[in-house]
Amino acid sequence: MTAPTKPSHPTASPTEPLPGPPRGENLHAPVIDWFEENARDLPWRRPEAGAWGVMVSEFMLQQTPVSRVLPVYEQWLARWPRPADLAREAPGEAVRAWGRLGYPRRALRLHGAAVAITERHGGDVPADHAQLLALPGIGEYTAAAVASFAYGRRHPVLDTNVRRVLARAVTGVQYPPNATTAAERRLARALLPDDEPTAARWAAASMELGALVCTAKSESCHRCPIAAQCAWRLAGKPEHDGPPRRGQTYAGTDRQVRGRLLAVLREAHGPVPQAALDRVWHEPVQRARALDGLVADGLVEPLADGLYRLPMT
Fold it and tell me: How much is the pTM?
């Protein structure tokens, strides 16, 4: 006769049922209380940042760590404290000021959003989620983040950090799917506190928890305010068994070549000849492909006589 198997739950006795996933109301208070004590003092969280400061930060923080964003953010807001200030500039100036944050199309999208805000909303970032979503370059996440963080509205804000916290604490898996799913959106909506101020605080707090404690590579469960009810921890932290997680490579890629080409154009005070661009990368086919991609993306403007510059219109 086969001996009965023991439950895998590390804290439950054989006669006790396994606990179900934590309910939203049991997560909100401890995470928000933790946030009040441990939140980083970041410039876009200060009242003087306003909705424009929040929007700028959200564009810059996509796939870019806070440490790299901070100096560029400060310079950006000092130069362009309102959307209309940026809208008056050529889009190439946004690309120039973007520096080495990476993914420079974000600079063009932020410039386009500033122009639209100036033309459609009198220069004030709208609070309405639908109006935010209608701005160029604004997706579901950014619209929800700006509405929530700048205006205290009730929206699920699903960045990578929040998705990882919910995957572990509620779903019981180590990592969320590579792309946001409908199930994740339903879960995030179900977990939202009912009142707007608490919902906005929960959005910021759960994001900070993922950034500082429930990180991708080295979770610190001993510092987590909801470790006692985390489904993944209580299940013994099973390893990820889904599709391989996407890694980000840079060296030798077209992204690296594009970055080097843009660096030459950012540092130049006028149009740049083809010969100056040719010197940045040894392989001509890849170099030409990267330059063509920059032109197609609107990040580089070709001129007569083999000259190139950052976009002016």
Answer: 0.87
Q: What percent of the chain has pLDDT over 90?
A: 85
Contacts of residue 113, Cβ cutoff 8 Å, sequence gap at least 6: 55, 83, 135, 136, 137, 138
Q: What is the pLDDT of residues 211-245, one digit of tens each?
A: 999 999 989 999 999 999 999 999 999 998 877 76
Determine the longest span between alpha carbons in the chain, in angstroms: 86
Answer for the pair 205, 32: CB distance below 8 angstroms, yes or no. Answer: yes
Q: How far apart are CA 54 and CA 13, in angstroms?
A: 48
Would you say the C-alpha torsion 105, 106, 107, 108 has a positive or negative sign?
Answer: positive
Q: Is 309 strand, coil or helix?
A: strand
Element (H, E) at 90: none
Q: Is 58 a catalytic residue?
A: yes
Please name every residue paired with 302 in a beta bridge, in sequence order, or none if there are none: 308
Q: Mind spelling out the 3-state secondary structure of 116-143?
A: HHHHHCCCCCCCCHHHHHCCCCCCHHHH
Do 176 and 184 meet the contact criterion of CB atoms below 8 Å apart?
yes
Phi and psi dihedrals of 135, rounded to 5? -75, 145
Tokens 């540092």 locate to 267
Active-site entry in 25, 36, 58, 219: 58
Q: Helical H runs in the chain? A: 24-38, 50-61, 66-79, 83-87, 91-98, 105-120, 129-133, 140-151, 160-166, 182-191, 196-212, 231-234, 254-267, 274-278, 284-296
Whole-number Å distance between alpha carbons of 143 and 153: 11
